[in-house]
Amino acid sequence: MVNAEELQSLISKCLQDFYERRVRKLGQLRLKGILRRKNPYLFKALGTQKASEIVEQILTAYIGSSDETIFGEAFFEPIARIAAGAKVSDAEGVDFVIETKDRQIAVAMKSGPNIYNASQKKRQTQEFLALRSRLYKLHKQFDPMLAAGYGRARSEPTKDTVYRRRSGQDFWTEITGDGDFYLKLIRLMREEPAKHRRKYAPAWDAAINRFTREFVENFCFSNGNIDWEKLVQFVSGTKNNEPTA
Question: Is the whole model's pTM more than 0.90, yes or no?
Answer without folding.
Answer: no
